């Protein structure tokens, strides 16, 4: 799976899931990937359904109706070495890798591809331990 170097962010830190989504959303708006309302949709999606998929991975994405606020499509990876909790007070769900999917079409198939890749904990460990965006990009390309 290919993600451009400039869309891979390493060594990120977030206090909690809400702050992570707000900061990521702000970044996407600043990069002119999405319009401002998309960020609210990211937050609602997490609150309603959760975006944690297991193996220390979260797949933040907006609700289906948020497609109208997508300006430029793409997939982003945010590496969070210290983790960020996408769970509840009753059950922590720590994610160290966040794949942010901003697609109008083929979103479901890309989410499935990411979920399959991350079902192997060794792949997640490699992503978590990588130091540079180039290393992460190569790990993703090696799995194709």
Automatic annotation (TrEMBL):
Keywords: Kinase, Phosphoprotein, Phosphotransferase system, Sugar transport, Transferase, Transport. Residues 1-143 form the PTS EIIA type-2 domain. It comes from the Bacteria. InterPro entries: PTrfase/Anion_transptr (IPR016152), PTS_EIIA_type-2_dom (IPR002178), Sugar_PTS (IPR050893). One of its GO terms (biological process) is phosphoenolpyruvate-dependent sugar phosphotransferase system. GO terms for molecular function: kinase activity; protein-phosphocysteine-sugar phosphotransferase activity. The keyword Lyase does not apply. One of its GO terms (cellular component) is plasma membrane. The phosphoenolpyruvate-dependent sugar phosphotransferase system (sugar PTS), a major carbohydrate active transport system, catalyzes the phosphorylation of incoming sugar substrates concomitantly with their translocation across the cell membrane. The enzyme II CmtAB PTS system is involved in D-mannitol transport. This is Mannitol-specific phosphotransferase enzyme IIA component.
């Amino acid at each position: 799976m290919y993600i451009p170097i400039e869309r891979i962010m390493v060594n990120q830190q977030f206090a909690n899931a809400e702050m992570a989504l707000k900061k990521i959303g702000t970044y996407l708006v600043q990069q002119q990937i999405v319009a401002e309302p998309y960020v609210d949709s990211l937050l609602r999606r997490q609150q309603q359904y959760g975006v944690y998929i297991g193996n220390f991975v979260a797949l933040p994405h907006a609700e289906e109706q948020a497609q109208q606020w997508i300006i430029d499509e793409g997939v982003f990876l945010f590496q969070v070495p210290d983790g960020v909790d996408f769970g509840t007070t009753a059950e922590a769900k720590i994610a160290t890798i966040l794949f942010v999917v901003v697609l109008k079409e083929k979103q479901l198939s890309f989410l499935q591809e990411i979920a399959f890749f991350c079902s192997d904990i060794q792949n997640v460990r490699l992503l978590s331990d990588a130091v540079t965006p180039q290393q992460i990009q190569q790990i993703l390309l090696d799995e194709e």
